[in-house]
Each structure stands twice: as structure tokens, then as C-alpha cells.
Write a structure and sequence with these properties.
The chain has 99 residues and is an alpha+beta fold. It contains three helices and two strands; from the N terminus they run ββααα. It has a two-stranded antiparallel ribbon with strand order 1-2. The protein starts with 11 loop residues before the first strand and ends in a 13-residue tail after the last helix.
């Protein structure tokens, strides 16, 4: 039984082999497999930044590099967004905490 592939699942041509036939690749040119899951990138960034509002792209990239990880521009942005979205909302200083 064969499964149908959508056009986006099919590898793109990477050129010609020595016999003139197409050479297939499994990912888009210029890309490479991620080094770590998005959640792992977010964990590393969050650990280095107790205050999510203080995260900058440079500081997030530095935290990843120091932990031996890396991320492209898009994944870095996604990881920072994930950290910020999962951070606990700050309490207004003039209002007591909800009980």
C-alpha cells in the first residue's frame, strides 16, 4: 500500500547525477535539520533570562551558542515568542494578587 504525498512532501530536484538523471534532495536548498526542538531552544533562552521582557535576539542567540545549540533567524524568533507567551503575566503593582 502506498501513501499519497502532497507536492510539499516531495523532494525537489537538486541537479543532475553523472548519468543525466535528476538528483533528489529531502529538504529545501539552504536549509538543514534543526539541532534541537523548539521547546528546548525556549528552555535554554528562558533559563538565561529570568525576565522575558529583557530578551533580545543577541542575548537569546548568545544563550543558545553557550549551550552548544544554534538556531536560524526564524527558529530564534519562534523560540523567543514561545518564551514570552508562556511567561507568567506580571502583576500590576497597585493591585493585590487575585485569590
Amino acid at each position: 500500500m502506498t501513501t499519497a504525498q502532497s507536492p510539499q512532501d516531495e523532494p525537489e530536484d537538486a541537479g543532475e547525477d553523472q548519468h543525466g538523471g535528476p538528483v533528489r534532495r529531502s529538504q529545501k536548498q539552504g536549509g538543514r535539520p534543526p539541532m534541537a526542538a523548539l521547546e528546548r531552544l525556549a528552555e535554554v533562552i528562558a533559563a538565561a533570562h529570568p525576565n522575558p521582557d529583557a530578551i533580545t535576539r543577541d542575548s537569546a542567540r548568545k544563550a543558545l551558542t553557550e549551550s552548544g545549540l544554534g538556531a536560524g533567524t526564524l527558529r530564534l524568533t519562534e523560540a523567543i515568542t514561545l518564551v514570552r507567551s508562556t511567561a507568567r503575566a506580571r502583576q500590576h503593582p497597585d493591585r493585590p494578587e487575585d485569590q
